[in-house]
Amino acid sequence: MRVIIGLTIALAVVLTTESASVVQEPDICTTAACEAAGKILFANLNQSVDPCTDFFEFACGGWEASHTIPADKSSYISFDILDDNLHKSVKESLSKEPSKTDSNAVIYASDLYKACIDDVTLTARGVAPLVSALNSVGGWPITGQTAPPSDWKDSLAKQVAKFGLSTIFSVSVQPDANETTVRRVYFDASGFGLGRNQLVNTTAYPDVVNAYKKYILQSAVLLGAKDDTQTHQDIEDILTFESKLAKLSLPQEKKRDSSVWYNRMSFEAFNKLTDNRVDWLKLTNDIFTQFGSTIRVKSDELVIIQDIEYYKGVTELLSVVPSRVVSNYLGWMAVMSLGSYTTKQFRDTVFNFDKVVSGVQKESELWENCVNNLLSTISYAVSRLYIDKNFSQKDKQEAANIISDIKDSYNELIKESDWLDESTKNKSLFKLNAIKQNVGYPDWLLKNEDLDNYYNLKEKVDKKKSFEGFLNLQFNSGFRAFKALREKVDLSLSWPMPPAMVNAAYEPTQNSITIPAGILKTPFFDSQRPAVLNYGAIGLVIGHEMTHGFDDEGSQFDAEGNLKNWWTQAIHKKFDQKADCFVKEYSAEYVPEVQMHLNGKNTLGENIADNGGMRESYRAFEAYVKKHGEPQRLPHVTEYTGQQLYFLSHANVWCSLWRPEALKTQIEYNPHSPGKYRVNVPVSNFKPFSDAYKCSPESRMNRKDKCVLW
């Protein structure tokens, strides 16, 4: 399906005589792209470190020594520079006056950005817009309102529609994981203001918990509360209630098993499940009413509950907790979500909290907050601006070509697998080849009419009312999702992530991979540099995402994205044995900077994907070499072979620095291992790395017992 085009590759020259063949060493690439690539690789190296002892430090030590964490960041990874450039490009586009030929959605985004950065108007308006918004959903008792707290179910329904916020109970409309052509209403535990572990064991995190209480207090005072005994008691009650909610919820690692999170039943059965303490049918229909929708669900309609024990426990809890406490918690979650849209004072309270939680030393500039807010609320319009300026059809095609190469190599690895039976191999190959590819951007994005139809914005931005402009987008987003309950699922309309994002994704319910335009830049991809560097960077990312289709979670879904057990019990047992190797291997990794071990269970899927992605992309690189010959050497790093450059390119993506607070949070909650371990552990499991760098059997980067799945 594909040939990589536009890359600077030199074939090895073979001189043939009647008696012998002499192979000439690959020459040195002298193009500007090669010069730049070689210079970066060299600058990032720390050649005083043995690559067989600590490859991450060898590949990234120079980068670490020459960079510091920006004051407004909690960590700094090499590709954060790419993310920063994306934000600056978007800022530049949004700052311009829109033209008459721009889509209405783009004009809305541009006008809202200008309103968002108008700090003079934000200051003049103060917190009045937030107070008005809170009053529209039942108020916030802690601020001293005299009206009795409203019914929490009424407040929750209004918050879902008006703020795009689900508190206590998360309510959404999504494709049914077991029947992905149909949408259902989903209920899950909601997010919390602190991490689950911090709420479950508050005494173990005194600094964070105290900062959280201070955050609530400062926010309440800004909205008119008195700093008195009653306010402090309200804050203690909020924290106690939230802690109880967290204890009733499942830890993230336990939700990797679909038998835990997929529970489909009728609304009638759902009501009975919670002893009719809550009429879930009425609550759901109230949400549709708040959206102005005529859709009504019925008692026999199916609904999906993602945390059954949480719903049993919380409905019982709500029957005994005072209404003031529940209303205060709902109000606080709304304030936490919306406060930063108002004044500098509110943004300062957020920063003071983040400083304790993540270690940041400086508040982000207002324009950065505004760009981030627009990227999260009207992402496709903002992405259109980015695509028009920064992305070509050629890049889109070349990335698609690499995907095809990776898929070919993964096909080979599945066929060579020694733990799959023939039937499961065939099903795996069928699923792999059925993976849908979202590359760069969806084609409809470039058509103004389609972009406007997607958002269907009825109002224009009042440039003096940015707060209301963002609330309108939140309502618009929720309205689109809920009104689609009866509509046919169209995967082309909404990707798992927008194009203007430095990330990538596999979506199991779609069996699709998404490689957004935002990630198709250096250090991940450059069509002008040698192919080896692209295989080592974006190639590994692509392989990583494909592997998610066959990790501990993705393997529970079939080729159509339906939740279906297509493995035999014997195959599951073999998979679990191999997966357990990764769990133990990563859990044994100790991070001395924060005196913690990695969580091998929570990071299992990502670790499997990192290891599998390396095998797939390296296999694809080998196939490329067989077809095109050894890659040219690079200036500044001429001593390194193509094979060695592949691993350097991969490691360079993950060069990183961390503040201790952020590193702790990463290890405790994030399903991804920190960058150092995303480099060192996979290479230590991979024989071609040891061969390339001639690592002895006793070296740390050439572990004796290698974990291998794919």
UniProtKB/TrEMBL annotation:
UniProt keywords, alphabetically: Hydrolase, Metal-binding, Metalloprotease, Protease, Signal, Zinc
GO biological process: protein processing
Residue span, Peptidase M13 C-terminal domain: 503-707
GO molecular function, one term: metal ion binding
Cellular component terms per the entry's GO annotation: plasma membrane
Cofactors demanded by this protein: Zn(2+)
Domain Peptidase M13 N-terminal: start-end pairs: 51-442
Record's signal peptide: 1-19
Record family assignment: Belongs to the peptidase M13 family.
Protein name: Uncharacterized protein
